[in-house]
Every structure is written in C-alpha cells, then in structure tokens.
Amino acid sequence: MISFKTVCGAAVLSLFAITAAKADQLADIKAKGTLVCGTMGTFEPFSFQDPKTRETVGYEVDLCQKVADSLGVKLELKLLAVEARIPELTQGRVDLLSAALGYSDERAKQIDYSLTSFVSRQMFMTKAGSGISKIADLKTDKISAPKGSSSEKYVRALVPDAKLLTFQDPPSAFLALQQSKVKALILSELALKKFQMQAGDGLEFIKEPAAIEYWGLGVRKGEPAFLDAVNKALKDMEASGDAQKIFDKWIGKDSPYTLERTFILDKPVSNPVLAEVK
C-alpha cells in the first residue's frame, strides 16, 4: 500500500519539477531549438517586409537573429501590433520582444529589459505651412500616434489638452496626417524620415525632440538566465563590431538615412528624457 506521506512527497517533487521547468526559459528555448521573437513588421527600417523577397527584415530582426545565433537555435519571427507586444510576451506566446520597445518604469513592472538596443529621438511632424514651430503650438490640436505606443504617452505628458487619435500601426497614423485628419504625427525620428522620403515635399519636423527614448529587448519577468544570455549576445555584438555593421546597414552610412550611431549596446536602459515645453 502506498502511504499518504509517499503520495505527498511525490506531489511536492512533481510540483517542484514543473516550477523549475517553467522558471528556466533558456533551457526550454535550447531544448525546442527555436527562439520566437516578437517584432512589428510594419516599421521600416526596424522590421518590415522586403518587397522583393517578402521576408521580414530590418535592424531589430538582425538583433533577434544574432541572439538566436548566440543560443545556437533557429529564429522564428512573430509579427505583433503595438498594443499586443507586452501581452504576447507575458502570456508566453513569444520568447523575446524586439519591437521598438521604449523603456518606462510602468513597462518595467511588467517585463524585464535587456541592455540598450537603440536610442531614439521622438519627434513631431506636421504639414509644411502649418504655422507650428514648437511643441507648445500644438495646444489643443489633433495629433496621431500608434495605439499603445510610448509616443502616445509623450503626447499626453507634453500637450495634455491636445486631441489624441490613436491608430493600429505607424502607417495608419501617418495616413491621418496626410489626409489632414490631424495637425501633427508623433513617431521615432527614423520612422518619420522614412515617411517623409516616401511622400516627398510638404512635410516638416518640429525641431525640438519630444523625447530621447532608450529601447531594449523585452524578456519575461523571472527569467534571469535567459536575460543574462540576451545581454551577453548584445555585448558580444558590440565587442565584435557586428552592432556597428547592423546599424550602418539599416540606419547609418550604408542606408538612406546616413545617421551616426551615438550609443552602444552594453549600457542599461533608462527612462526617456522629455522636452521642456515652453
């Protein structure tokens, strides 16, 4: 006859084994041989569909690939809407977020951030001749932003009386500006430059940045081994020169943007620095 003590002991051991398995995401990823990386897919040059190959490519895709390579596993991409990023991660449907994930204390309560993956200037764009030269000029105007994005939060903080219209993705928010449904659009500087190049003349930036934003890769809470592995991959990219090559390919001297990289991948993320609206 099996004793009550034996049954209880077996149950405790079983529960411990299940908890340990859930707590070691790194081991799970290596066991299945695949890293599932959540990215946006509509945000050139960070992650977007190559018109020739129809594959999702970009700066943040290359970062995911390097992390997968460092773990010795295959990369699987999952395309996410802006507002779905954190829920998809916390519910375990993706292993890692590489999706324009600006740091905030609020988000850091829900997920863990890697070291810095990008530093972005958040900017406002208007139509030429709008008469708007500074952020304070927006006052009660209509402004578009992607739903669930940090850009949305900056509008609420900087011009709280403005009428904020949110959209499913950056292209939809930009279309609202083109169709004069809003007076201004807020996005990362690179995203706005891309839209400006596509649209041609007739668009201009408000010169002062709305915020300087630090991005990181997102990892579920309670996964220290996996977070350490992601950070090691970023540090290795910086040390090997791959970080600069990836930047130059999509954003720097080998890209249409020709921007200079002013950050490195081995620094902790921090809260954004907001503009002083006058």
Automatic annotation (TrEMBL):
PROSITE patterns from the UniProt entry: SBP_BACTERIAL_3
Signal peptide location: 1-23
Keyword Oxidoreductase: no
Keyword line: Signal, Transport
UniProt cross-references to InterPro entries, sorted A to Z: Bact_solute-bind_prot3, SBP_3_CS, Solute-binding_3/MltF_N
Pfam families registered for this protein in UniProt: SBP_bac_3
Limits of the Solute-binding protein family 3/N-terminal domain: 34-254
Gene3D superfamilies for this protein: Periplasmic binding protein-like II
KW Iron-sulfur (keyword) present: no
Regions annotated as coiled coil: none
Family: Belongs to the bacterial solute-binding protein 3 family.
Name of protein: Polar amino acid transport system substrate-binding protein
Organism: Rhizobium paknamense
